[in-house]
Amino acid sequence: MPGEPWRELDELVREHLDEGLRLALRLCGRRDDAEDILQEALLRVVQAFHTLRDTARFRLWFLRIVLSAARDWQRRKQRRREQTGLVEAVIPGAEPSRPLIESSELQRKLLAWIDRLPARQREALVLTCFARLTAREAAEVMETNEQNVRTLVCQARAKLKRWLDAELNGPVDHEC
Q1: Domain of 140?
Q2: Residue 16 is part of a domain; what is its CATH number?
Q3: Which residues contact 38 (CB under 8 A, 6 or more apart)?
Q4: Residue whose C-alpha is closest to residue 106's, from 169, 167, 170, 171
């Protein structure tokens, strides 16, 4: 009968759905996130059900898929946090809107803007923000003094902040 596997899947999912939700909730800590994880897991279950050879093992198979969906969710969350951290590390105090921060588009734009900076500003910024050198260490690498490194970083951040503000709010008339 054509609908038989789907009927069986429906029964199996209903039987283990609460357990899947509890697992997702324990893994992520928030009910709305757990529901998102479970929804992703259910899509995977539907797509892969034909590969399950023994429905007696459905429970463990299903929980493994929930765990995998939770891991993927955690990785996406970490990437968003890293992207947010990139903006904060490069432009302290910048408050771009959440949807833009959470997109990889902002990260690409920020890296492109950094590439557009004058060479010395870019070098100082990269050494202090990405390589995490102190101003003194960066000055030694750049063969300059600490104050010059601080000035270059300040100039670079101001320029990046202007570009970010223009991206979010439209062009600004004044020059910093």
Answers
A1: 91-169
A2: 1.10.1740.10
A3: 17, 20, 21, 24, 66, 69
A4: 167
Residue 175 domain-assigned (yes or no): no
| 169 SS3 class | helix
Report yes or no on 14 lying in a domain: yes
Residues 48 and 73 both lie in one domain: yes
Number of domain units in the chain: 2
Q: Per residue of the chain (176 residues), what is the pLDDT tens digit? A: 456 778 889 999 999 999 889 888 888 878 999 999 999 999 999 999 989 888 888 888 888 898 889 889 888 887 666 655 666 666 666 555 444 444 567 778 888 888 889 988 988 888 888 777 789 988 888 889 999 999 999 999 999 989 888 877 766 554 44
Burial of 170 (0-12, 13-18, 19+ CB in 10 A): exposed
